[in-house]
């Protein structure tokens, strides 16, 4: 007796045998990338391979729009730190994208400045800033009334972290470095 209910794999027939991983990965990638055109999906998934490490750091493809027949514009989100370098080398970037696809797909590049966090940036430690002794005493005075030792210790640590973060931000501003 056959069942008309859909199986976990999405078809009305029961799955028999093994199925390739691509059968599962393609629908998941399609959901993750939304209704974007196929060329843009391919470019997003293989951005570093397509343009190389010098252009992939601090950049992300956003959209591909076709203004006229045969002309396409790649909208690229670029971290402000890399915007000038990408702008000055935009023709080389376009050539790399076109070389990756094997034909002249992109004619123009539109740069939109956005903060891009790369894996390398996430691992860069912030400079250590010690907690000011005045702040530590003020925090101690505020949490001294809490009877639960564990809660008091947690709040003390939290206060010190907030104080250190504030001091770090101030020191970065003084050195003219943008905080994360």
The H-level CATH homologous superfamily of the largest domain, spelled out, is DnaA, N-terminal domain
Q: Would you count the extended β strands for me?
A: 3
Amino-to-carboxy terminus distance: 61 Å
Indicate the radius of gyration in whole angstroms: 26 Å
Strand order of the largest sheet: 1-2-3
Task: Give the domain tally.
Answer: 2
Which CATH architecture of the largest domain is right? 2-Layer Sandwich
Helix content: 40-55%
* Main pleated sheet: 3 strands, mixed
Which geometry do the CA atoms define? elongated
What's the CATH first level of the largest domain?
Alpha Beta
Structural class: mainly alpha
CATH topology of the largest domain: GMP Synthetase, Chain A, domain 3
Question: Strand-residue fraction?
Answer: 5-15%
The number of helices is 9
Mean pLDDT score, rounded? 76
